Amino acid sequence: MAQLRIALAQTNPAVGDLTANADKLVEWTRRAADRGAHLAVFTEMFLTGYPVEDLVLRNSFVEASIAAVEAAARRLAEEGLGEIPVVVGYVDRADRAPRVGQPKGAPLDAAALLYRGQVVARTAKHHLPNYGVFDEYRYFVRGDRLPIFRLHGVDVAIAVCEDLWQDGGPVAVAAEAGAGLLVVPNASPYEREKDDVRLELVSRRAREAGCALAYANQVGGQDELVFDGDSIVVSASGELVARAARFTEELLVTDLDLPEATYGGLGSFEVDAGDGTVITVERLELSARPLEPYDPEPPSVAGHLDDTAEVYSALVLAVRDYVAKNGFRSVILGLSGGIDSALTATIASDAIGPDRVHVVLMPSRYSSDHSLGDAQELVDRQGVNARVVPIAAMVEAFEKELSLTGLSEENLQARVRGMILMGLSNEHGHLVLTTGNKSELATGYSTLYGDSAGGFAPIKDVLKTLVWELARWRNAQAGLESEFLHGFAVPPIPENSITKEPSAELRPGQRDTDSLPEYDVLDRLLDDYVEKDMGSASLVAAGHDPDLVARVIRLVDLAEYKRRQYPPGPKITPKNFGRDRRLPITNRWRETAP
């Protein structure tokens, strides 16, 4: 057996900031070298950030990416880091290695091996995901090369992200070629309970490849996506060896005992990939002799996060990175005293600090005394910046000119509030956070240009029942401080905001249940219809009330135009409103009753 110390750089790149990402590459390679690592592995498309979406269709961007990876190789050598091989993701193009049947110049989701100032090997993602949030057939052509480099007597293969999630391809070829280690740069976005799925997948692919597997995953927020890290190292038998923490940057350093390479030749040869394609294996040698035996470091295995903790951490990271990466200094939101705005304010305080959170209390003639009191109590508990702007006179001024009644009058109140928040945003440069939850967005219980006005929607993918669960969980963490918790001495959310009956308070005595079922009933139905795509017959067969099925489906379908105009928000479920779920606004298809 041969020893090898690998360092997985679980890092947070910024899309499009090639200079800053290259700086981080050098910084974290130096950290790996200082820890005695023999190989450093960065994440998928690290130099460009991921996903770059239509930036990849610009020739200037692709050329900048190619230049950046070559410059990074030279810079590593110039700064004394050229002897540690580095695997890093970037965007390349197919005309660097022309192949039959593919368009000249088509972009590649690529990974490069940097060593001694050179790009000594290049590969590209073979399986291109085209489901859920992914549109990679729009952007890339598939790779058909698998580099295997000999490092200190161990044959190391490189695959990219989706190549683990599909059968055949690089995993099968790595097994055929006898690799001792498979390293996999990833940008695998978060959704609830994905950590269990991910570990099972990595373990299974290691057994299929017959070698140890090192899975390096991106961390950080990028528009609607949150990347949770959770980088993993497993043995050839699929046993967990090391695991990084979630939602935070970490250099995961792990010592492995790996089989010495037995294949004698270099060069290239073709292998049936088991998926109807052929992949060319390209062998190269960096160092043939195994290392002298050394004392290994004990492996690190991060503790498990429960479901509620991981969701809350994802939301905090999403807000923090959206604010930071888009250059905002502060956020602002309307604080009603209800649970949705209370949770949103708390997430913002945990993300960027309460001193950078601004809330506006905007009571109307229908606002209850306890709502204003609950809002003020949250301000006192958290220390956020607050101001009170009564809206009754503003609403009356509109009504004198427009004579609005009923729903129009209710929506007017929401739009006046939205106008106030947007005006303060323009004046002071705050990012406006909207406070709507997934249950409201699904059923159309939001007002265009009112409570939907804003730049980011932290709980957009959070059903109402989960809003309450997150609030109770966060209050139970009072006094604790971490990267995702501010350390409030008392529970940050007033108990009355959690326990009182929800109401928009846009007319006297209004309650959500006047027009919606209880949220535990509604949310189960929404989960089946929105996330599982069940039709009417299937919903009724699953036990949902037929009349409620018909009513809720109609509400959801008619609200598509509203959701299309809602701000982006972090995805935490398998199907969010946005990148995941794309339905036509003009659409006459209706589910029929069974």
UniProtKB/TrEMBL annotation:
Residues bound to deamido-NAD(+): 411, 440, 562
PROSITE patterns: CN_HYDROLASE
CDD domains tied to this protein: GAT_Gln-NAD-synth, NAD_synthase
Region spans: Disordered: 567-594
Pathway noted in the entry: Cofactor biosynthesis; NAD(+) biosynthesis; NAD(+) from deamido-NAD(+) (L-Gln route): step 1/1
Residues covered by the CN hydrolase domain: 4-258
One cellular component term from this protein's GO annotations in UniProt: cytoplasm
Feature: compositional bias, Basic and acidic residues: 577-594
Taxonomy, superkingdom: Bacteria
Gene Ontology MF: a single term: glutaminase activity
Family according to the record: Belongs to the NAD synthetase family. In the C-terminal section; belongs to the NAD synthetase family.
Function: Catalyzes the ATP-dependent amidation of deamido-NAD to form NAD. Uses L-glutamine as a nitrogen source.
Name of the protein in question: Glutamine-dependent NAD(+) synthetase
Native organism: Planomonospora parontospora
Gene that produces this protein: nadE
